[in-house]
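Retro notes, item 3 of 5
We never archived the inputs for the EPU complex last cycle. Fixing that now. Sequence and ligand:
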Amino acid sequence: MEKLLINGGIPLNGTISCSGAKNAALPMIAATILSDESIVLKNLPYLQDITTMFELLGSMGCEILLNENMDFTISTNNIKEKEARYELVKTMRASILVLGPLVAKYGEAKIALPGGCAIGSRPVNYHLDALEQLGAKISLKNGYIEASAKKLVGAKIKFDGVTVTGTENIMMAACLAEGITELTNVAREPEIIDLAEFLNEMGAKIEGAGSDKIVIEGVNKLSGTEHSIPADRIEAGTYLAAAAVTKGKITINGINPNRLKKVIDKLKEAGAIVNTNENSISLEMLRDKPKPVDITTAPFPEFPTDMQAQFSVINSIADGVSNIYETVFENRFMHVQELNRMGCNININGNQATIEGVDRLYGAEVMATDLRASASLILAGLCAEGETKVDRIYHIDRGYERIEEKLNYLGANIIRLPS
Ligand code: EPU
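Structure as it came back at the time:
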């Protein structure tokens, strides 16, 4: 297995560009199933999760072509298998995103039921309840979700809990349902707005994305379009946090700061100087130690759970004690044991992590457990004294495009060790 070897203690300095957002791209790729015509997607990040989504579409019979500009043309009008097999679903839970589009377009889908994962049990009951309310018949058999419907019919649906991919799944399904669907208690993440814009370009009629209520008027068919994937706010936030822990000075281009408002507020509270303009964010950390910041994760517009692990590192070298409350996932503190091996002083009590700032972190051999946990280990390695070896970095390759290249470009010293 490949590893990353990090020589810590170098302040990051320079300018980089943000890549396309994984969590915006995945639902858009799934949404191509709804279209009668080919769709061109630009600025797709080169990530394992994107490859897995293409593998899934390929296994159904879709055609995916790549041109010399790295634009993908996806044609889904030849789907034979309306199935997502366990081999793929177990490697990427977001495979569930094909459920809504398959049932809406083809009247049937068979999707392996995702199991629990490193950050929690993560059931899909909200997706299934909502799809049933659109008229689908759903049964669970031999570890698979089997769903069918002659024609989905619009309904008023209130989600029992806020779910990002659940909102996306049902929003996609409702595009081809008969009549009007009204979704409430929906997720308001920027990726929901991105997906709605993409679907509307394909001819859908969606209003309200980004608010608590989305209204979708069903149409008979969706057509082709050409669309560019927007920038990854979590990637941007991760690099800003990396600059903060290394006392660096960086600029990230191509990212709308409004998507990171809560993260920027907390970086400022930690003592970083953050300047923004329409399409870029700069951060400079002049303080010797960050100020400790309390954080409570919650659905957008609150502080994102996907930035929680990275802030654990900022707080670990801060001047005092802080608390992090994780309210989205029940088990998203897997990074803590590894961070403590590098000298952090973090105690977990239920969904609360209490972090006492220490004078310095020390390099160690550590193991990544999930995507954002791996990011936090890299951040810790960047500010630690000595050498850090991060194992199981396939987790990071799922969600960060060319991470060591980008960080090395900012002055870091990271080598990818072959397996
Ligand atoms: N939940 C249920 N039932 C459901 C769906 C969700 O109980 O049917 C619970 C989950 O167990 C969790 C909470 O609701 O406790 C929120 O989960 P949500 O469904 O919003 O998460 P998701 O859609 O599976 C997406 C991102 C995650 C991100 C979360 C929260 C994608 C592909 N994934 O997951 O991204 O953490 O929203 O913002 O969009 C990552 O990129 O590292 C990542 C994990």
